[in-house]
Amino acid sequence: KMTQQMRDLQLAQARKPPGPSSPNAAKRLYRNLSGKFRVNYTSFDEGSLVGRGEKEKLRKSYLFQSNAALFEAVELQDLDRVQELLKQYSPEELDLNTPNSEGLLPLDIAIMTNNAPIARALLQAGAKESPHFVSLESRSLHLSTLVREAEQRVNELTAQVVNEAPNADCSEKEKQLKAWEWRFRLYKRMKAGFEHARVPDAPANVQLSVASSSSVQVTFWEPLSVNSAVVTKYKVEWSCSPTFSPPLGEAVVDKLKNLHFTIRGLVSGTAYYVRVSAYNMKGWGPPQASVPPFAIPSNWREYDGRAPRRRGQAEALDHLLGQVKTVHQHCVCHEPCKNQPQSRKHSVSKSLKHLFHPGSKFLKTLKRGLYLTAIFYKDDNILVTHEDQIPVVEIDDTYSCLLMQDFLWFTKVSCMWDEILWLRQCVTVSQSSCSCILQTRFKMLLAISQMQGLLGIQDLGQVFFEPVKDKQGNILIVTLKEVKTNQTFESVRWVPICKLQTSRKSVSSPEEPTALDMLLISVQDKLAYHQRSSHALSPGLYLGYLKLCSAVDQIRVLVPEQLPNILCHVKIRSNPNISREEWEWLQKMASVEEPVPTEPEADTSQNPLFHELQVAIKELMTLVNIPLQEAKDFRLYSQEVLDFGDQVSFLLLLPPSDDVCTAPGQNNPYTPRSGFLTLPLQIFELGEKR
């Protein structure tokens, strides 16, 4: 009895004119079939389709063809084609886990022909084995049936070809015979692959670590043996007994992109033994005990019972701010601010459509003074005014020397864009003191309000870590904000950055460019900084390097350009947790003032953290251009582990106490390689909190 899939193959081949002879009939069929799929795909003209129903029918037809193409690619062991299809379509579109008319899935064919690369690609895409194979006997019976039916069909076609006179019908039967002969060989190869397979060896490199005070994590590799069938899933078991009697629990891991599993809901202080076994089409292999054989859920904070440093801080600050605002609401001087910018007479919409309002107070040119500019960008486009200018408003035209403390105060204000009106009212109360500092800061708040009003947006984004200054006495404070929505605006247009840079007519000389020209020249660098400063680290434990340098009015910290919101660092491991035992070892090492571990010792196998630190320190010293022998004088900060949420933690590596902060004029013989910058400490702290 011919299956439906074979009929489809024959019909597809029958419509194709005879091609050049090929030693492999199956490959010719596959090549012709794949070519047909490609022509059908590129010939779709959606503009000529009538109605959505017809479009949907064509889409389903094409997806069906893609499913057939995947089966063909797996059967022909065409890894490139399999990867191409998996990349082009989702598992649902490919019907990756829907059996064909023979009751097989692509993964079944791959593992029974022992094609490990294709099987791994399918497994990582979410492929499963056929649900029909509930036992070894059912799989063996199914394969025997496929082989017998294919052999019977080959015999029938052979008899027809031999007994019939040569004609067009006979030629067609010869093609069918070749296709069935190839399929008969495929099924026999699958049957032989199943019969000769054996259960898998135990997984390799089974490592156990403490993930938290109530969980442990086990990681493992595929079995090292290459003689067994492809592994399709793993089983993790745990118990409080080394004999696993009684077992406490087990879990099956069938998502094989990352071979690890976290056992949760455990009791702190209790030892848990873990083992892992692998499964293939012949069944479960022997279990492999973890190294170390057991782990005790714990956290470094249990060493002295300290609470997280940041616990309740945000809530306390919100409560304090609420109290301050409540007090100011009862102040007699606390009236709605009358010093609104002139542009507030015009309509202030809560959108960007009034950005080009002819009455706006955006500046075209700069005089000697202090200014605020807001850069809004989306992809490679930037938002500009009606005159193709980046929005700029004046803060103070008599202020030509921005004090660092005023700038740092402005950066703190950027955390409260929604509270600018309230802050203005508070500063107005104190203006009678005629303090120059208060006058400047009040003007900063006025400029912020004006920019918000003209743009119709409260959140002006993140402040760039340093102002733009020119030799004419102009100073630009720059804010940056990425617009991620696809919203369109009536009166606003996005201009490509490169077009804005080439079309702007500079009014300054190349030797002494104005602050606006300097901003345009360096705008891509500033946008890159803004994007990088919002990137997050992947989960894990990191080793950070703390290096400061001081100036007259500020302290700066060394950070990597690629991730300026975090210290220079290298990753120690993927598990962010420091267990109580590991923390006790770190405390012991600090109490006896042992040097930082840079050389291997005999007992590193008993202390994985020791070896991990050695590797990380060597990598970090190379990164910041410090000779390894200098690291012997460095120290690990032993007061706490710096936790950034639940998934990222840091150990700090400190230079000798005299070298933690380089003073002005002090020689630093080891200059970091390119790829680093120094940020004002307050800017770094704000960036780390974002």
TrEMBL record:
Pfam family, one: fn3
Disordered as annotated region, ranges: 1-25
Domain Fibronectin type-III: residue ranges: 202-299
Signal peptide: none
UniProt record, GO biological process: establishment of mitotic spindle orientation; regulation of establishment of bipolar cell polarity
SMART domains: FN3
UniProt-listed PROSITE patterns: FN3
Gene3D superfamilies xrefs: Ankyrin repeat-containing domain, Immunoglobulins
GO cellular component, one term: spindle
Name recorded for this polypeptide: ANKF1 protein
Species of provenance: Campylorhamphus procurvoides
GN (gene name): Ankfn1
